[in-house]
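Hi D.,

Good news: the full-assembly prediction came through. Inputs first.
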Amino acid sequence: MGMAAESQFHVLAVDDSIIDRKLIERLLKTSSYQVTTVDSGSKALKFLGLHEDGATNPNTSSVSPNNHQEVEVNLVITDYCMPGMTGYDLLKKIKESSSLKNIPVVIMSSENVPSRISRCLEEGAEEFFLKPVRLSDLNKLGPHMLKTKFKDHNQKREKQEEKAAFQSPKRQEQEEQHQHQQQLLQQQSNNNKRKDIEEGLSPERTRPRYSGITAAV
Amino acid sequence: MDIANQLQRQFMDYSTSLHREGFVDDQFTQLQKLQDENSPDFVVEVASLFFEDCEKLINNMARALEQQQGVDFKQVDASVHQLKGSSSSIGAMRVKNVCIAFRSFCEAQNREGCLRCLQQVTHEYSLLKNKLQTLFRLEKQILAAGGSIPIVE
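Then the structure:
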């Protein structure tokens, strides 16, 4: 249970409708994700440690070796139509932020507007779900979150190696040991998670982006 | 005769009629499936939120349509859009369908049409509320009798 924080994915859900927030929270929890819900894009950015003007919260700067945010968020799922900051605006702000751009973002909308869908996907959204969202839609989230864990991990490794070039050998050795331990933990938890997720995945792993759309009948 | 069984039968018949008459659609069934030991009152909670939301939005629409100086149809439409979303999320099919017609009238800036829809949506909402309250009452009775709530598709 000590590895709980590492082995459970944390999703930030953004929706101005209280009913939809309740629904997405239940869907995500049923899928074994940790969930935080907020009712606006600006609250989402605050939670992610980013101020609206793009400045990063000094408390969550990149000095911390593990997280570049206060609380690690593995995926953001947001409604498109929201007053003030739309889901699209939020998506843009996340993708424009050096500290947050690797977080996968999924857009939800009650309206099937092809131009809206392509705009979001072009801006970097991983998936576009039509509301009401189903459990089967959420099965598509796993690969995106896994991918990021590996990417993050590799980026940290690279940073570590850069730093190592400027460090004394002893310090380097200590850091490498720490890194190695982290790798083992990561692999362990990833193996567990991967197994759980694979059971829920459909056979086709790579798919064109537009398959995220289910037509509203 | 087992009371629980009797009640379950009643529940299933009632559920089937709600679906057949279009009060609820498959999304409502999905909500029922999401209810489990971890979230035993999920459906009742969502329904309560929906009813509160409905009342608030219907009031907003009524106020906006009352404006003698000129109706702000964008404002009405915004409320209808929200109601359409919530009703879709909970599976309230008849309410949702009225909202679809309602939006067309908003777009056409047709005050009479909007007022008719407002009346209809208010009617559908109160019908649904009664129906669901009956359904939830049956559920409580089943549980009290020691039975479990069947899922009707």
